Amino acid sequence: MKKKQLRILIDTNIWSEIAKVDAGHDLARVARKASAGILVTPTMVEEIRAIPDRARRVKALRAVTQPTWTRLMPEPYTECSELKAEIKRLRPEWVIANPNFKEVNRLRYDWV
User: Fold this and answer.
1) Which are the contacts of 22, defined by CB distance < 8 A and separation ≥ 6?
2) What average pLDDT does the chain have?
3) How many helices (H) does the chain have, and how many strands (E)?
4) Is the full-model pTM beyond 0.85?
5) Where are the domains of the chain?
């Protein structure tokens, strides 16, 4: 049986401290060594964007938006995915044959 990867969700206040001491790369190294995944929610990014001090905000955003972290999708996205799956199952004729995902992908991968 395959061992599940440890997934770690860090509080926004902790991200601020990680950024303050510039420990983002250290965290990535330790997580990699422990085979752990660091999870980031859109809410965390929004909370950090609200930090009034520009220098602190920029450092924290750099720490929390590293490409090595796993970005979780917002809850409405997950709910829409479930709805889409049901539409495909129950009303396949409603599905667009060749959808254009350009705008969807732009919004999906836009962190900040």
Assistant:
1) 59
2) 90
3) 6, 3
4) no
5) 1-72, 74-111
